[in-house]
Amino acid sequence: MKTPAFKLVSLNEALFSVKAFAAAMAALYIAFSMGLPRPFWAMATAYIVSGPLSGAVRSKAVFRVAGTALGCAGAIALVPALADSPELLTLALGLWVAVCLFISLLDRTPRSYLFMLAGYTIGLIGFPAVTDPSTIFDTGLARVEEILIGILCATVVHSVVFPQSVGPALLGRLDATLRDAERWTREALSRETAPEGAANAQERQKLARDITELRVMATHLPYDTSEVRWMTRAVRAMQDRMAYLLPLTAGIEDRLDALRGQLPAEVSALLADLDRWVAEDPVEGGADRLRAEIARLSPAIGEGTGWKEATLLNLLTRLRSLVDIHQDCRDLRAHIRDGKSSLPERLDPLTRRRSRDVFHLDAGMALWSGFAALLGITVVCAFWIGTGWSSGSAAAMMTAVFCCFFASLDDPAPGIRLFLVFTLLSVPLAAFYLLVVLPSFDSFPMLVLGLAPTFLALGVFVARPATMGKAMALLMGVVGSLSLLDLGTGDFASFLNSNVAQVVGIATALLVTQLCRSVGAAWSARRLLRAGWSEIAAMTAARSGIPVGSFENRMLDRVGLLSSRLALAGPQQDLAAADAVNDLRVGLNVAELQRARRALGGPAAPHVARLLGAVGQHFRGLSSRRLGTPPAEVLPMMDAALSNLSAEPRSAERDRAVIALAGLRRALFPHLTFATPDPSSESLREPVTA
Predict the structure, then answer these.
(1) Most exposed of 101, 180, 303, 546 (fewest Cβ within 10 Å)?
(2) Does residue 502 surpass a pLDDT of 60?
(3) What is the predicted pLDDT for the residue at 43?
């Protein structure tokens, strides 16, 4: 039986390998023709830039070019200024790398490549100039030319030769995610009789991961070669609408759990009707008919309203939102399919509503990663300068590169270790090419024939997700060894010295990472949960309006990030009850209460403010690692808030506050039965100060 690694080569794998090799050879030929000292840098860059989707290659290329130019400018500015003090110069270069890495980790879009490239490009240019600063301009110019040649060749080849566009792949993923969302919606609508299981939680996590991955893919869309790039606004609007389905459908499931056996017959009929509408192709006016029926069945809020009525109103309001979102997604998808240049008036505002800060960002871990890179560079530079090692600059370069490459991972050590192992395995192959192949050929076509068997074979394995890491490590080990040598002076002694430096640099990055940067999946999961709890606590104390979309998207991203980490963490007592989707629902209800509270002028506003303060105190305790259930005094505060809200004059803000209050109660106390606050109780109607 063949193992997956040695299965037959698919057409897409072969095509990617040929295109990547063609781009690398074109870059190598141009570098040779220009007489650049280390032309294999161009070849290495072409392989680094290459990817299966042309839009992703183009988007990354723009920022790689800018990052390379910025790193070169930094080297040219720092090296002459600190040429007389190698210690200060290496420290300044290390600080540059650390700061650029910190900034790049605070951006999870292709823009991050700009700062990452600016970071380790200054290492590629600056460290070799520490011992010979007079050549900094020539070295910097040559390195930038080599890198830019590789970027441009890879971009042109992948954009022109059988381009594989991001657009069709993204639309396929978008359709699959929408089908998954519709299936989960139908399961939620049958919640009145269907119990929850582990599979349901997995569905939630998968939907969150899919939406986050779609957002990342969509960042490449403006650079794509397909017609879908003109639909970027509509695609992003559709993703924004789909993001609300996760908390919305989870909330509907919870309300149906709470009302199981107590739903009016008309509401049960509405659920069946809505289920059919989601499952079937929409008919004209179907959504409007459902909205009218929901409005007719919604209970009126008045003095003496209890939690059952508030929960039923919450359910019906969520069903109305469910209809709106599914209809918007269908209309936007039809617009994208038709490729129309303008949207209908009803949909156009959706494309203009852009939420910022859609990704979870961890400034603390970004800062720590920058510090780890600085520490590794400082250690290897101290050894280099202290011993006068002739190839020490190569070790510093490799430390900078590998501290940057894997910094986005919870534990970069396994990835760095993989590259270290395959770098060692690549040494004999690199020696064969340097000492046997290169001297044997006197023409570039013959050199291409000599390189083709190895690099075409490795390119196939790079195209396979299961073997990509190992194949890329081996490929970069070979071409990286050749890149470190000036072909005009290359010999066995310099080859051996440069490879020892490469290994020392990678090993230093691995050691520093293991000592002060590696964290486990459970640690990262707890940090993600605490970030969500801290944000909810901050929302309860917010004095200004809470932007629509920002919190929802960040929490949705955290749900997706948590799912993989919880699976890797294994059984953990404090993580077993973690429910980031429930935290998302809490945050949404808190945001609604905050928005409604500012519009309420009666005695209910202080009660809502006091409740929000207690909820905030609970989540501040959670974020400070004081785990526990919500305090019992929150319940009478909720009763008081509902009683006073029910006595308010009828308004849209009052109803929104009641709906959010019912949702918050279910999220914090899911096992409570319904109880009606006693309107005659003075303790519930007594005004309080916020």
Answers:
(1) 303
(2) yes
(3) 92
Which tokens belong to 549? 């979309």
Contacts of 608 (CB under 8 A, 6+ apart): 593, 596, 597, 600, 641, 645, 657, 661
Q: Which of 6-20, 31-45, 473-487 has the lowest mean pLDDT?
A: 473-487
Q: For residues 399, 404, 408 and 410, what is the CA-based torsion angle, rounded to 10 degrees?
A: 10
Instruction: Give pLDDT, residue 2.
Output: 44
Matching residue, tokens 């024939």: 449
Cα-Cα end-to-end distance for the chain: 71
CB proximity list for 390: less than 8 A, separation 6 or greater = 497
Alpha helices in 408-491 (DSSP H): 413-432, 438-440, 444-462, 468-483
Work out the pLDDT band at 200, boundaries 50, 70, 90: low
Distances in Å between the Cα of 450 and the Cα atoms of 25, 437, 446 are 12, 7, 6
Q: Is 600 left (phi over 0), alpha (psi -120 to 50) or beta?
A: beta
Phi and psi (nearest 5°) for 106?
A: -90, 15
Range with lowest mean pLDDT among 223-232, 259-268, 528-537, 644-653: 223-232
CA distance 152 to 145: 10
User: Looking at residue 549, what is its pLDDT?
Assistant: 61
User: Would you state the pLDDT for residue 486?
Assistant: 58
Q: Decide if 41 contacts 147 (C-beta within 8 A).
A: yes
The phi, psi pair for 624, rounded to 5°, reads -95, 15
Report d(CA 69, CA 148) in Å as an integer: 9
The answer to whether the beta carbons of residues 14 and 460 sit under 8 Å apart is yes
| Residues 596, 656: Cα–Cα separation, whole Å | 7
Cα separation, 201 vs 212, whole angstroms:
17
Any residues with CB less than 8 A from the CB of 362 and at least 6 apart, and which?
105, 527, 531
Q: pLDDT tens digits for 443-489?
A: 899 889 989 999 999 999 998 888 888 999 899 888 888 876 655 55
Determine the Cα–Cα distance for residues 688 and 529; give it in Å rounded to an integer: 32
Under a CB-based contact definition with an 8 Å cutoff, are residues 185 and 83 in contact? no
Dihedral pair phi/psi, residue 598, rounded to 5°: -70, -20
Please write the tens of the pLDDT for every residue from 161-191: 888 776 777 778 778 888 888 888 888 887 6
Residue 35 backbone zone (phi > 0: left; psi -120 to 50: alpha; other: beta): left
The whole-model pTM stands at: 0.79
Task: Give the C-alpha separation, 296 to 290, whole Å.
Answer: 10
Q: What is the DSSP string of 44-85?
A: HHHHHH--S-HHHHHHHHHHHHHHHHHHHHHHHHHHHHTTT-
Question: What is the spatial distance between Cα 231 and Cα 227, in angstroms, rounded to a whole number?
Answer: 8
Long-range contacts (CB closer than 8 Å, 24 or more residues apart) made by 467-476: 467/5, 469/415, 469/418, 470/418, 470/422, 472/47, 473/418, 473/419, 473/421, 473/422, 473/423, 473/426, 474/422, 474/425, 474/426, 474/429, 475/47, 476/44, 476/47, 476/48, 476/419, 476/423
- Cα distances from 591 to residues 101, 126, 321, 477, 580, in angstroms, run 34, 50, 16, 52, 16
Confidence of residue 369 (pLDDT cuts 50, 70, 90): very high
